[in-house]
């Protein structure tokens, strides 16, 4: 396997996969093992991983989200869910209150655990010489996805990962200037010029799927009302009170 720092610094997203490539079971197991070894708050491991191999299920995912055909064409699709059902079972066993819906901190904790496990899966995938793409847009149809997978209450889909053998090489995408991201001993203000410089960097990078300046893309995105179905779903799942 490649050196971990090299793998991390060479990360890139792949969306085109060899549909005939079968991911060996031992490789999938290594990815799952690495994912489960991620750090978690108090060793709570407040997540679950749904391994989706069934083609019919994955076809339904693509029908819901046609912009991501790789969910079907990749070797396997992993759905990472924040899982507070396990600790609810523990509370029932000890016959104590389960008060997680009283505030948002338990949900933040579970989502953080989930994200760390997902990142470990991505790193393990790349260390094996394979490619992946993280799919956050599964939350757009969060209720339908949950119904398809029979997810119980206290469980929240966070993101999926398509994994497979890439058919097209991708370039390493430039990141924001360090001054705009890294702060020492407190948050430090920076010039908007840092963002403008990144806009120019991304224009030169010229990724085909990007049709707007980086800054304009997010200005437009956050000028719209957030996906309120998430709010409703979180309450339905008993993760937050009404």
UniProtKB/TrEMBL annotation:
Which Gene3D superfamilies does the record associate with it? NADH Oxidase
Keywords assigned: Flavoprotein, FMN, NADP, Oxidoreductase
Record-linked Pfam families: Nitroreductase
The reply on keyword Flavoprotein is yes
Domain called Nitroreductase: residue spans: 10-165
Q: Which InterPro entries match?
A: Flavin_OxRdtase_Frp, Nitroreductase, Nitroreductase-like
The similarity annotation says: Belongs to the flavin oxidoreductase frp family.
Q: What is this protein called?
A: Nitroreductase domain-containing protein
Q: Lineage in the entry?
A: Bacteria, Bacillati, Bacillota, Bacilli, Lactobacillales
